[in-house]
Design a protein that fits this description.
mitochondrion; ubiquinone biosynthesis; Ubiquinone biosynthesis protein; disordered N terminus; two-stranded antiparallel sheet; ubiquinone
Length: about 270
């Protein structure tokens, strides 16, 4: 991980005070899922089955994103795997060789999902942060983003296992950086000094630990996860307290992910 940090210039964040993220527009089929009264989230409609008989014009013009969007509905049955992608393609009238479009298999599906979540986050939070203090905004943004994995929570340890594989760690860290950067951005952060980095490093650790805890939470509406998150904010004292945590994020992510996956009995 140290070498990864050196190659990226010592920072994990893609949006510096002078560089903004470039977003793509991905609009998957979603429906609302409530984590708490103050935390509305959109979720993929995993319970509906789309008609496998698609018009010829649709079959011939489907994009990779269209196939991946369909594959998300199959994740509960087949996991974050190439099988979900292949079955999605077949249901849309494509042959099984279509999986050649996705050389990274399940990692491509996870990458698509994480990009989609990033694009949906500002839409989910639109108009909901007005009148809130900074920490309340960060809490709401964090819970809203965590709520997006709720439809896949039983399979999310598998996604963490895929992201924890050496070849996928850069992708995983990149997405983590974008998540915390976007939450701070939506909360109105305008810092332009070292505080910009420490705020995001601190939130990255808080987000990652809470996400891991959520995979074990069996309480109604993820109440235990919300309390866990609040304790992490209290432990941090301020969101800018992350002196030595920047270099620990990569190590923490890899060790924690592999630890929880092994404890759950999933094979890597």
């Amino acid at each position: 991980m140290a070498s990864l940090l050196r190659r990226t210039g010592g920072t994990l964040f893609s949006r510096s005070p002078s560089v903004l993220l470039t977003r793509t527009t991905i609009k998957p089929a979603t429906r609302q899922f409530t984590v708490s009264a103050c935390c509305r989230t959109a979720r993929a409609d995993i319970n509906k089955t789309q008609d496998t008989e698609q018009p010829a014009t649709f079959r011939h013009h489907a994009t990779p994103d269209t196939i991946l969007n369909k594959a998300l509905t199959l994740v509960p049955q087949h996991g974050w795997t190439i099988e979900s992608i292949t079955k999605a393609a077949e249901s849309m009238g494509y042959p099984t060789i279509i999986h050649g479009m996705f050389p990274n298999g399940g990692a491509d599906l996870i990458d698509y999902f994480l990009k989609d979540c990033l694009n949906r986050l500002p839409l989910e939070l639109e108009g909901r942060m007005e009148g809130l203090g900074t920490q309340e905004k960060i809490r709401l943004g964090t819970l809203t983003r965590l709520g997006m994995i709720a439809p896949y929570i039983d399979r999310w340890p598998e996604a963490l296992a895929v992201m924890g594989q050496p070849s996928n760690v850069p992708m995983a860290l990149n997405h983590l950086a974008k998540i915390v950067d976007e939450i701070w951005h939506l909360a109105g952060d305008k810092s332009a000094d070292m505080n910009w980095y420490t705020k995001r490093a601190s939130l990255a650790v808080i987000y990652t630990t809470t996400e891991l805890y959520m995979t074990t939470d069996k309480t109604p509406n993820y109440e235990a996860t919300q309390k866990f998150l609040d304790r992490r904010f209290e432990d941090a004292a301020t969101l800018g307290k992350a002196t030595n945590e920047v270099l620990q994020i990569a190590e923490f992510g890899a060790k924690s992910v592999f630890g929880i996956i092994t404890s759950k009995g999933f094979r890597l």
